[in-house]
Automatic annotation (TrEMBL), chain A:
This is Transport permease protein. GO terms for molecular function: ABC-type transporter activity. The keyword Aminoacyl-tRNA synthetase does not apply. Pfam families: ABC2_membrane. It is found in: Cell inner membrane; Cell membrane. It comes from Flavobacterium agrisoli. GO terms for biological process: lipopolysaccharide transport. Belongs to the ABC-2 integral membrane protein family. Keywords: Cell inner membrane, Cell membrane, Membrane, Transmembrane, Transmembrane helix, Transport. It comes from the Bacteria.
Length: 287, 482
């Protein structure tokens, strides 16, 4: 590229970009689009439904109720001093946020192929919009949680919010990034190998049982010590467990486990970002 | 627009296709044939009607090639990917880049890989409107996709000095649940506008679309025409430095199309925007573009003045000066008493010819077979130009066959088109057999033959010695008197 001085060209379209051009500045330039997508996602989701955004609340409410009946009343899992209902709800809400981020981003390319095939904008906008949309959903569900929390507090529950509760948003961030990272990796690979679509469906369900959603980590260590490493190596288990600790002062916080979670999240995120950026250049030919 | 007599005539360069060997290498270090780029096409410059045009290359495509794999993505994909990866690890070239056929849909190739685009070079000046024309499957859409960053080229690069916005479809990302107003914002943002920009143009957009009344109604309640109008309105107010437009003008009703073309002209002419325009509508291409490139089977076969580009594109169409059905009794155009056997385009010497000088007469001879006696009929002839505009129609209104029955067997009828009547370009003819009283068309065969009128200078022509662009659908010799 000698004949044209470099600075004269604004940009260049090439077959392959270097691995680490993440074009985050471009994402920033398209921030308006990001928020319009979020708005679209929120506004259109429950159009022409009678209950509207109430569906955001009904789903976790009934999941929590079911969990409480089956795991606590029937199976008798102990949740310490916390009412089982609240224990489960904390787990369900945080778990839901993660899975929503993962499953909604995991078909980014496939679901938006017709849009992506017609116009260019940083593809990362799409999964980001999904994660933010789910954040709004999480916020609404947290209000529901707060309602029940106050109810049980009034009923004489001993656990209260503490200074640690302020770290909850940090945890949400880790979860969002982790969901986004896995979603990006899967969505990139799905463009060529559709097998992964099936994996995500039941994989997420199986993962829930390994992520200490409806039981404390301590319980599995006590009851099934030989299999506990499945849970101990699962970064999500630490997130859920920590979430419950931050919200309910129940359970354990493992600083090492958290550090491990953050590290895994960051590595997966970087890997996902690189893969996603590579895929977005020509996925339209294979999707 | 007004056709000023300004554009240079006959100024074009037949595009030299680069050597095929270049396609097999990665782009780095592959600019040997591009070193004289800045003045490679001096012939396009002398009369540029755009006041804002500077001699500055705003966009430059070098060696663009795009390879596709045929068949399904599935079995074999993984093995090829692994093989590719293995070559890369050892620092070798991608083994699949060396193979691949030229993109010709109708012939069966030998390779699973096909080059949808091969060695595309072109430059676009700031303020220029470049038309990209070619038949279906010539690679236009692939090129547009690469330009708009929807997909990356396999090899080659495009360098740009301006931001590119693409309009490959109107209404991309429209959500039927959202209102018209919400969709304007969403669609505008998808096309690269900021919220602020859209808000400042919102009133204009709504006014242009003519959907004021429905603007706060979900677009799923719109008629399809309204949706398209709204979508085009958003796109019309895009303000990128380079606009890439696909066949988007072919939407809406005639009135709206006129409005859309007018808006496109404003964008390209008035505002001096650089536009790359793809269309099958030659009239639109002609009225909007200043320069054109013709693609064929993924290669640039012509680059130059838009008139000549269109000519080049059209000449290649499958028109023929001689059609003969004598050996194909199934496909003959026919009615119960008559069938067409042969049509020939003849020059003044009486020989079959496809090219005719603008001042020479063109004879078209129809040969048909009478199958049943006692029928009264006549002949009709229609002439269409390359843009499919119906130039003229002629009935053989005084034909003897209207009063007298022809005997069984082969008969001929010849029509003569005078010299100095048609403008230069390609023409297609249709032939009909009709009855009068009551009027009835027995058959009307389109595209029976075609011919080209070649422009020339000189006393025998209407043009005379004038060398500029000579507009008009027809070019008859008329008398000027004091």
């Amino acid at each position: 590229m000698n004949e044209i001085p470099q600075e004269e060209w604004l940009f260049e379209i090439k077959p392959k970009s270097s691995v680490f051009t993440l074009q985050l500045d471009e994402v920033w330039r398209y921030r308006d689009l990001l928020f319009l997508f979020v708005k679209r996602n929120v506004v259109t989701l429950y159009k022409q439904t009678i209950l509207g955004p109430l569906w955001y609340l009904i789903q976790p409410l009934f999941t929590t109720l079911t969990f409480t009946l089956i795991f606590n009343k029937v199976a008798g899992i102990s949740t310490g001093s916390v009412p089982p209902f609240l224990f489960n709800m904390a787990g369900v809400i945080t778990w839901n946020y993660f899975t929503a981020c993962l499953t909604d981003t995991s078909d980014t390319f496939k679901a938006n192929a017709s849009l992506f095939g017609k116009v260019y904008f940083p593809r990362l906008i799409m999964p980001l919009a999904t994660v933010i949309t789910n954040l709004i959903k999480l916020g609404i569900q947290c209000l529901l949680f707060l309602g029940f929390y106050l109810y049980f507090y009034w009923q004489g529950m001993s656990n209260t919010f503490s200074i640690y509760t302020l770290f909850f948003p940090f945890l949400v961030l880790i979860m969002g990034v982790l969901g986004l990272a896995l979603g990006m990796i899967i969505s990139s690979m799905v463009t060529k190998y559709r097998d992964l679509t099936f994996l995500v469906g039941f994989g997420v369900q199986l993962l829930m049982y390994l992520s200490a959603v409806m039981y404390p980590i301590a319980l599995i260590e006590e009851k099934m010590p030989q299999l506990a490493y499945w849970v101990q190596y699962n970064p999500l288990a630490y997130i859920i467990e920590t979430a419950r600790f931050l919200l309910l002062q129940e359970g354990t916080v493992s600083p090492l486990g958290l550090l491990y979670t953050v590290a895994v999240t960051l590595i997966l995120f970087l890997f996902g970002l690189v893969l996603f950026n590579r895929t977005e250049r020509s996925f339209i030919d294979t999707v | 627009m007004s056709y000023g007599f300004t554009r240079p005539q006959q100024l074009y360069t037949k595009y030299e296709t680069p050597q095929p060997t270049t396609c097999c290498h990665p782009v780095e270090g592959h600019n040997s044939q591009l070193t004289t780029e800045n003045n490679s096409t001096p012939s396009m410059k002398p009369h540029n009607p755009h006041p804002t045009t500077h001699n500055e290359v705003i966009l430059k495509a070098e060696n663009i090639s795009k390879q596709y794999r045929l068949g399904t993505v599935g079995t074999g994909t993984l093995s090829h990917d692994l093989n590719r990866w293995w070559h890369k690890v050892r620092g070798k070239e991608d083994p699949y880049l060396k193979i691949g056929d030229t993109n010709d849909r109708s012939t069966k190739g030998t390779s699973d890989y096909v080059w949808a685009l091969q060695d595309i070079h072109f430059e676009v000046q700031r303020g220029e409107v470049l038309g990209i024309i070619g038949k279906n499957g010539a690679g236009k859409s692939t090129l547009l996709k690469i330009l708009s960053k929807v997909t990356a080229p396999t090899i080659g690069s495009i360098k740009s000095r301006g931001r590119i916005a693409s309009l490959l479809e109107v209404g991309t990302g429209f959500n039927p649940e959202l209102t018209g107003r919400e969709n304007i914002f969403l669609n505008g943002a998808i096309l690269g506008m900021t919220k602020k920009e859209i808000a400042s143009k919102l009133d204009e957009i709504i006014a242009f679309s003519g959907c004021e009344r429905y603007i706060d109604t979900p677009t799923k309640r719109y008629s399809s025409g309204m949706t398209v109008r709204l979508a085009f309105a958003v796109a019309a107010f895009l303000e990128p430095e380079i606009l890439v437009v696909d066949e988007v003008l072919a939407v809406g009703d005639a009135e709206f199309q006129k409005k859309a073309i007018g808006k496109m002209q404003d964008i390209s002419k008035g505002e001096g925007r650089t536009v790359l325009f793809v269309s099958h509508n030659m009239a639109a291409v002609k009225s909007l573009c200043t320069r054109g490139i013709v693609l064929e089977h993924g290669k640039v076969v012509f680059e130059g003045d838009i008139e000549n580009a269109i000519q080049n594109y059209l000449e290649d169409q499958n028109s023929t000066a001689h059609r003969n059905w004598k050996n194909e009794d199934q496909s003959r155009p026919k009615a119960d008493f008559i069938e067409l056997l042969e049509v020939r385009v003849l020059n003044k010497e009486g020989a079959i010819a496809i090219n005719h000088s603008i001042f020479d007469e063109v004879k078209i001879e129809f040969q048909y077979n009478i199958l049943k006696e006692g029928e009264f009929f006549t002949h009709g002839f229609n002439l269409f130009n390359a843009e499919n505009i119906h130039i003229l129609s002629s009935h053989d209104k005084n034909s003897l066959t209207l009063k007298e029955s022809l005997p069984l067997g082969i008969h001929k009828k010849t029509i003569t088109i005078l010299g100095n009547l048609l403008a230069e370009g390609s023409y297609k003819c249709s032939f009909a057999i009709m009855r009068y009283g009551p009027f009835h068309v027995e058959f009307h065969e389109m595209d029976v033959v075609g011919f080209n009128i070649i422009d020339e200078f000189g006393d025998k022509t209407v043009r005379g010695s004038y060398s500029g662009h000579y507009p008009g659908l027809i070019r008859p010799e008329l008398e000027w008197k004091n």
